[in-house]
Amino acid sequence: MQPHPGDVWVFAYGSLMWNPGFAFAERCEARLTGAHRTLCVYSFHHRGTPEQPGLVLGLDLGGSCRGIAYRVAAADWPQTHAYLTEREQISGVYREVTRRISLLDGSGREAPAVAYLVNRAHPQYARGLTLQDQLHLVRRSHGKSGPNTDYVVATVKALEGLGIRDAALAFIVHHLAGGHGAPADLPADDEKTLP
């Protein structure tokens, strides 16, 4: 299937994987190189409040990230872009950028895609949190879109459905479920280090 020249790809790495909220013409696994998925954004709206911030994912510089790419038909793009702007740009913590992605459907295709990278200069950028810090924030916070725990668990389930194991997220989910220590099935390698 050849996309229309005006169609737009959107790269999803967090909640957009399991709750896109917009119409799309095609969905496939994809890889973005040059940034990795990490819990690095304080959430004051969707999964927390300014008084009790939650913690959500961002694309931070370095490494690579596997996720989902959605192809949005050109005719649907203005409405979809307005929706994504309202959802992702509430406070400006994400920068909307265009990055080249590899589509992992066996076709060898590459395409430019809209992606949302974290703005490291923004006050909501959560730099240097330990896994225990992340766990504490996730466990206690709740925002307009629901509990922070639900967000992390749903993201891990979506990743597992793609055969992706994120060590940090697996640690947090393991402890949210009452586990102690490190999960037994943590991989030795981490997606952040992939080329």
Automatic annotation (TrEMBL):
- Which enzyme class, named as a word? lyase
List keywords of the entry alphabetically: Lyase
Q: Which CDD domains match?
A: GGCT_like
Q: What is its EC number?
A: 4.3.2.7
Q: Name one Pfam family in it.
A: ChaC
Q: Which SUPFAM superfamilies match?
A: Gamma-glutamyl cyclotransferase-like
Record's PANTHER family?
Answer: CATION TRANSPORT PROTEIN CHAC-RELATED, GLUTATHIONE-SPECIFIC GAMMA-GLUTAMYLCYCLOTRANSFERASE 2
What name has this protein been given in UniProt?
Answer: glutathione-specific gamma-glutamylcyclotransferase
Which organism is the protein's source? Xanthobacter oligotrophicus
